[in-house]
Amino acid sequence: xxxxxxxxxxxxxxxxxxxxxxxxxxxxxxxxxxxxxxxxxxxxxxxxxxxxxxxxxxxxxxxxxxxxxxxxxxxxxxxxxxxxxxxxxxxxxxxxxxxxxxxxxxxxxxxxxxxxxxxxxxxxxxxxxxxxxxxxxxxxxxxxxxxxxxxxxxxxxxxxxxxxxxxxxxxxxxxxxxxxxxxxxxxxxxxxxxxxxxxxxxxxxxxxxxxxxxxxxxxxxxxxxxxxxxxxxxxxxxxxxxxxxxxxxxxxxxxxxxxxxxxxxxxxxxxxxxxxxxxxxxxxxxxxxxxxxxxxxxxxxxxxxxxxxxxxxxxxxxxxxxxxxxxxxxxxxxxxxxxxxxxxxxxxxxxxxxxxxxxxxxxxxxxxxxxxxxxxxxxxxxxxxxxxxxxxxxxxxxxxxxxxxxxxxxxxxxxxxxxxxxxxxxxxxxxxxxxxxxxxxxxxxxxxxxxxxxxxxxxxxxxxxxxxxxxxxxxxxxxxxxxxxxxxxxxxxxxxxxxxxxxxxxxxxxxxxxxxxxxxxxxxxxxxxxxxxxxxxxxxxxxxxxxxxxxxxxxxxxxxxxxxxxxxxxxxxxxxxxxxxxxxxxxxxxxxxxxxxxxxxxxxxxxxxxxxxxxxxxxxxxxxxxxxxxxxxxxxxxxxxxxxxxxxxxxxxxxxxxxxxxxxxxxxxxxxxxxxxxxxxxxxxxxxxxxxxxxxxxxxxxxxxxxxxxxxxxxxxxxxxxxxxxxxxxxxxxxxxxxxxxxxxxxxxxxxxxxxxxxxxxxxxxxxxxxxxxxxxxxxxxxxxxxxxxxxxxxxxxxxxxxxxxxxxxxxxxxxxxxxxxxxxxxxxxxxxxxxxxxxxxxxxxxxxxxxxxxxxxxxxxxxxxxxxxxxxxxxxxxxxxxxxxxxxxxxxxxx
Amino acid sequence: xxxxxxxxxxxxxxxxxxxxxxxxxxxxxxxxxxxxxxxxxxxxxxxxxxxxxxxxxxxxxxxxxxxxxxxxxxxxxxxxxxxxxxxxxxxxxxxxxxxxxxxxxxxxxxxxxxxxxxx
Lengths: 896, 119
Hints:
Chain A is of the alpha+beta class.
């Protein structure tokens, strides 16, 4: 107790302000005068002043400087040690900081709005009856429900509705496909975002369908695309060829509520008919689910309370829905599931969670990997420091013998390890941007995520390196406590290290364990990637391109639009740059296909499909253009094309995939059988199946065992679609395509033009990121643990020279000597592997969702990883082992 | 080391490290608040002239004690109406003095025993 008080006093002493020079000078003058009064002479004033200055220069700072200088000198002397430690830490810390940069932006950073912690995302959980529209968050609500949520004032201070979509935008010249958010009038006021210029959308901008042609542009769009013009308010723009007026610019830094897709502009929900004419009924219908609802909770209400209070109201709403005239006839089971739906209230301080949903798991996996790598590096540095502590035992003992206190020496060692880790941290800051740039390339273009390392991440790196330093520094200090001075000074054989050898062996086993975990994870992700590539898409992606056209977006009538689509297709098929061309209703691997139930006529017996059948409309030649495999029946031919001018009608024919055929027809051929879209009792089954194809990927590469149906493109409305073209050379073909489209209508934007190879790369970006980085981690882990193992083996062997020499002298063969050393290494590896296995098992939950066609606890993968570790460890142990075997026993024994 | 006391100015008394602090504290305990000159004068008087402290010895000790919170310094005026800085014991200083006196007595007893063979 007293000791503590004394320490507190001393500590206070170092922070208590020292006296000022002139104050002491005055006191000394007074002293001299008092002395003179009594006839004495006072001396020593300058020593007193010196003492004041000495006291002011904090003594511990002085010591620290000395420790630092000494530490640097020592480190500079052992270059190999310093370099190894620095590099392993730099890689560990750099990977951590780099990954944390993205993790922070995707998962941690709140939206730049007022009190983001009060925002919640209101999510429909359960089975819906109706149609789901749009990209982004999966569990949308209808516009009427979103509006009714706003009235729950006892829960919400306000609720906004938003629908992300793309429109054809012209600010003067060309039309460009542009991301927009279609929003309710409450959008900006609920978020508390202010205008940078003009005003924002208010509730009075969202009263009557089609009556509010106003837009707000984002600050980024205003600066990058509109030249930051000060007179922008009042400017006309064309949205899908509808004139609208810019009324303001949103605050800088505000990029909407979904980081995955920052909109360029915001449009009132009442203008949805202009933004996406398919959805104009969405303002009224309760059967169209297309709005993300984000609410601001009333003060004092939390998410759980909001959920509970919404429940009774939502149940009534569902009941009213079921009784409403527009509710389709569904099976009792579907009805029951619909009524069991709930509203989930999720914290949304970080916005609507699409980017999180996509990247959260992979980022967490990578972060865990990076942390493992850092732990491995730390263990390695701790091991190295420990070895050095032993090598320097005599030096340390000498210092202690001449009077350095134990604490003083401990501090010296701590300063040294902090020097190393701080250096590693600084180097890590250099490595971090490389890692985050690699990672950034795997995240969708345009997402509000930057690869630049910010200051908080630097702080993170610093904290990590300091913690590592302290942890690593503690190891030798701990060991120092056990040092017996006399033993060290007189010891010649190095026997004193026996106990710490155990510690070092443990450290190496720990490193092996971490390395195994990282290697196994890398193996799993690499296998996932290769299996996805091997599985492929079901069609030939080389030199295959696609792009979309929507002539109605620039104001053409449906008839004219269809004619344009026909013209463009014909011109493409005549173009020498292009081998084949076809047209379809949707973009494979980008948005995918729509799905729904089918009714099948199985020889008079009606059967409703028990799972979703995904549909797409394709023109004749589509199967050939993609190189899909036709396994039964026939493709569509030119005779199946509806003549121009004839009105579109219901579907007249269908091609199904093999999965569908096998599921519902077994071994029989489905060709000739009839199906009908829908599952109502009155659904007509009058669409004959004419062909069967192999399955293709729909939304992403993981798709498999999915039922698909390909209707004839021309049977239905054909005013927009996606062209698929097989080309000779994608670059020159792209030019030819633009020329053809511009020739048909210069205002028409070519949307989403991409090659399939690019598309696949994008579709596999998560898998590639995981495979690339985890392999990187695995290799680094391997290298670091080899260094650690080699270090400890070399040390152990040196310690056992006498013993080995003696054994050889007594008749042991050289092979015995090698085995003696190698056995030690293998034991460490085996221990490490045994420790790692349960951890690999535990990792399953983290990685399983990211895998494809391989289980998380995959025997062969673990065996290969363990074998390669053992092999590498053996190599690392071989060098010192051979050295031991080669030694001359006489020489060794004579030394002793 | 900055903490070490420069003793060379203390004539005919090889003052051990820390004893000067002890003596200053004891002086303040006996006399109450005092300025630097009077502390030196008092010590000289008590030691019958054997202990003459100059400013270069006394003031570092006073500053050290003040830094550690054992004494408090405050400007005041002497009876002859001169400005002087007065030092007074703090509660912590009083405790510290008690502790160090005990330790000193114990040590002195031991040394006495060692040197002369009896307590």
